[in-house]
Amino acid sequence: MLKTLLRCAGKFVAIAAAGLVMSAQAAEPIRIGSFLSVTGPASFLGDPELKTLQMYVDKINKDGGVLGRPLELVHYDDVGNASSARNFASRLIRSDQVDIIVGGSTTGATMASVPLVEQAKIPFISLAGAVVITTPVKHWVFKTPQSDRMAAERILADMKARGFTRIGLISGTGGFGSSGRTQTLEVAKNMGMEVVADETYSGSDTDMTAQLTNIRNTDGVQAILNFGFGQGPAIVTRNYAQLGIKLPFYQSHGVASDSFLKLAGKAAEGLRLPASPLLVPDSLPDSDPQKAVVQNYKSEYEARWNAKVSTFGGYAYDGLMLAVKAIEAAGTTDHEAVRKALENIHGYVGVTGEFTMGPDDHNGLDADSFRILEVQNGDWKLIN
User: Looking at the DSSP assignment, which residues form a beta bridge with residue 310?
Assistant: First the structure.
């Protein structure tokens, strides 16, 4: 009898121990890796992105996590430096052993990290905008912002609808501005429009009046487009106003935030740009599927951080939610299973737009997901 009791007790201990091991394994966190430009010249991108990731990782964990496991955010500040981003991507993959990466505030940081991601075979959702990130399609790389090509298509379509077909283009020489310039030139040609003036500026330039004067003095210019991000577009906008240029003025989605309005001041009045509806959520009709999503994100972000939202934080929201959706659909954090689940996401309504991915489309958005906004009385106004 004693032997039987001891055997039973032993089995009970073994089962209990096994249960504890299984419970510990089940509770092991799902590691979300991220490298972002939280400080430095691109901090207007990375700061709201990090705050968004932190806020929603906390929120998801309070609601029970994902697959019964908590999320753990492992993040680094690349200060907008591509080399640092590559080093942090390597650390996330090799040392931190994250399950998926959601990050890359800039095109340069993203593209510097892509070879490591592809070699390690780990899903990567970029928060940067250039078309080169997902075109051609890279097996492990996805992105949440619309591409610079889509922005060019949306801007030029609005120009053409207003009767403007001869364009003055000014762009930054960094990765985003350079790619935007290339896409604008190609799209303009395809749409039967003409770029009659083509000027550039570097990230260190503090005055662009010479370039804008050249554009103004070019015969036949009907509208001006600036493609860039950071301080440059605000300087261009102020110089544009100082020169008294009266031509219709457009910016790219690279400056779609309230921080740009503060930098540009009254000089921004009347300019147009493509953006997500996050900047004008209350202007959306109730029938718009994005309205509730952007209103909820806006209210939650502003309540948590006592700061206004930006479209860049919205990219991070979509990146995290797409990652969670894919992990849940896969039922595991196995890299290939999650990658396939990302590739099969259809009709996900996010802050940026409605995402439908596929083997030939790792962005899942089109140009129509952009809304055209105009600065009126110092604020954003939905045009169409």
Answer: 257
